DNA sequence: CTGTATCCGACGTGATACTG
DNA sequence: CAGTATCACGTCGGATACAG
């Protein structure tokens, strides 16, 4: 029921910074990337990998709130999108390094910008939430 | 290109390429904003409202893939975060206008940057997905 | 150490019908 | 026109156990 066939075929990738929504077809594809950013853990993993390659349990320890399953799935998704590389060292015990690709590092930039904005305007947003909550709950 | 031109309270936020994770507590809060961006419809609505205030069914028509329920919920979430305002005209039939607040317009900037990045690197990502899929499916 | 498989609850999403 | 309520379904996410 969902238009999975996304025929972007946009000849002008250098579109003006006006609106990134010239067509609805493109939006779907862009949304999938946005969804990755909105993933509960993807951004965390990306941020952790900015410093350099990390091992599986190293990441698990750094994020600490994540479960093994979710870390695996998140890493898989990131790897699938070409955002991180997975290097296996056939040693005993096995060792797997995850590293940000150039694409992943590129994604990290706008994500960091967004993160900065979020961090900066956090008080405003939380204040608005409180206000809305109060108004909606006590009204 | 990147809207680093944001009114940050901390001057160190822009300078160091370090990771914006001074505390884990903050990450949670930032994640909630990121989650909003990652919402399936929030970004679409924000983009539609950049041009100016829109009515409910107007938005519903523009996005078209969205259900009434989801549009309502998305709008509520946006309103709760202080990103959009809801103006009711007690006419018959009733008319409700949704408009981006200053905060919402501010959020639109990094989101547009992210959207542009996504749009630009869409071929790379989709290619990586195809490759991963093929390698994982045929292996 | 690095995963995979399974179960299970929670939540997001949509379709439909109803109200002001 | 704008919004709510309810139900049904699929997916997400966590805990646990197991395997290479």
Reconstruct the topology from this structure.
The structure is a homodimer of 139-residue chains.
Chain A: H1 24-38, H2 42-50, E1 54-55, H3 56-63, H4 68-80, E2 84-89, E3 95-100, H5 102-120, H6 122-138
Antiparallel strand pairs in A: 1-3, 2-3
Helix pairs in contact in A: 2-5
The structure holds a DNA duplex (20 and 20 nucleotides).
Structure description:
Two copies of one chain form a homodimer. With 139 residues, chain A is mainly alpha-helical. The first copy, chain A, has one domain: Arc Repressor Mutant, subunit A, CATH 1.10.10.10. Chain A is built from six helices and three strands. The first copy, chain A, has helices spanning 24-38, 42-50, 56-63, 68-80, 102-120, 122-138; strands at residues 54-55, 84-89, 95-100. Chain A has a three-stranded antiparallel sheet. In chain A, helix 2 crosses helix 5. The longest helix of chain A is centred in the C-terminal third of the chain and has 19 residues, at 102-120. At the A-B interface, helix 1, helix 2, helix 5 and helix 6 of A face helix 1, helix 2, helix 5 and helix 6 of B. Chain A binds a DNA duplex (20 and 20 nucleotides) through residues 40, 55-57, 67-70, 72-73, 88, 92-96.
């Amino acid at each position: 029921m969902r238009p999975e066939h996304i025929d972007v075929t946009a000849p002008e990738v250098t579109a003006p910074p006006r609106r990134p929504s010239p067509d609805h077809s493109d939006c779907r594809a862009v949304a999938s990337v946005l969804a990755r950013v909105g993933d509960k853990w993807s951004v965390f993993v990306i941020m952790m990998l900015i410093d350099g390659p990390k091992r599986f349990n190293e990441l698990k320890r750094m994020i600490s709130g994540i479960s093994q399953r979710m870390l695996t799935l998140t890493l898989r998704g990131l790897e699938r999108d070409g955002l991180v590389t997975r290097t296996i060292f056939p040693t005993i015990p096995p060792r797997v390094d995850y590293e940000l690709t150039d694409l992943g590092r590129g994604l990290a930039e706008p994500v960091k910008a967004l993160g900065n904005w979020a961090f900066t305007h956090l008080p405003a947003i939380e204040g608005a939430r409180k206000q809305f909550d109060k108004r909606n709950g006590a009204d």
